[in-house]
Amino acid sequence: MVHLALDHIWMFISQSETGLKSPYSRIIFGLSIADVLQSIGIFASPFAAPVDPQHIFGRGNVQSCSAVGFFTIAGSLAVPLYTLHLTYYFLKRVKYKVKPQDFANGQEKWLHIIIWMYSIVVPSLAAGKGMINPMRRGAMCYLGPSPTGCNTNDEIECIRGKGAHLVGAILIVLPLAAIFVALLTVLGAFTLHVYTSEKQLQPTKQGTAKKAEEKETDDSPDEKSDNSPQEVEVDENKEPEQNQQEELSAFQRYEKQALKLVLTKSAIFQSSLFVLSKCVKDALSILV
């Protein structure tokens, strides 16, 4: 599975015209790597759990569970962060007309550094403190105390990961909630931009139709002057026709831009729902 995912990422890079030269391709590459890390952790967790009668598929030990949990936590943090990075890049490109090269030279590299530093430091801290342990009967190696249920049952003593729920709530759940709020903010900015663009399109469309009606009136035989030469009449009608074509072309460009914005808004809304589901899932896995 991992080999297949890496092959797809390599095909994306090799077959792309720009490779990793554009900010978009680099963000997608980082998002893909984060998704692969998370997938590795989720897939390997049941087998990496320590051997125990409660762990159905457990074939590993404490160290293997901590290692696999490291990948799971790193991926679960990097994926929503890169989703926010991607939507923020679209906002800068579409609304603020920032060129890809300017974005690459300015904010992009720092965003990559922040994403990976945070995604690596948090699981490293958790692994160093012994807070990554098998949960849900060994189905997932994640942030939590061991044995399972020791934080809620006074009769069970926590051997490892005491206080893991509090650390997880502060370092994972709260940041994911903040990411979701940031995505909603970006979505709101896009929605406002689309609404403003649609408002600007309506007068343009009405003005174009009015110009076309005026042109038809000017071209009617009853209102033509017999004393004007034909050459002058052609020159007089040439400029309105050219203006009408320019207005139609501008309207079509605005219409295409608005359509792209609507599609982008829909994509960001889906991303927001995705991050919300991850916030709920991670909160339940840590707090329950």
Automatic annotation (TrEMBL):
GO terms for molecular function: G protein-coupled receptor activity. Keywords: Membrane, Transmembrane, Transmembrane helix. One of its GO terms (biological process) is adenylate cyclase-activating G protein-coupled receptor signaling pathway. It is a multi-pass membrane protein. The chain crosses the membrane at residues 27-49, 70-90, 110-128, 166-195. Residues 203-248 are annotated as: Disordered. The keyword Nucleotide-binding does not apply. One of its GO terms (cellular component) is plasma membrane. It comes from the Eukaryota. It is found in: Membrane. The keyword Membrane applies. PANTHER family: G PROTEIN-COUPLED RECEPTOR 157-RELATED, TRANSMEMBRANE PROTEIN 116. This is Uncharacterized protein. It comes from Chaetoceros tenuissimus.
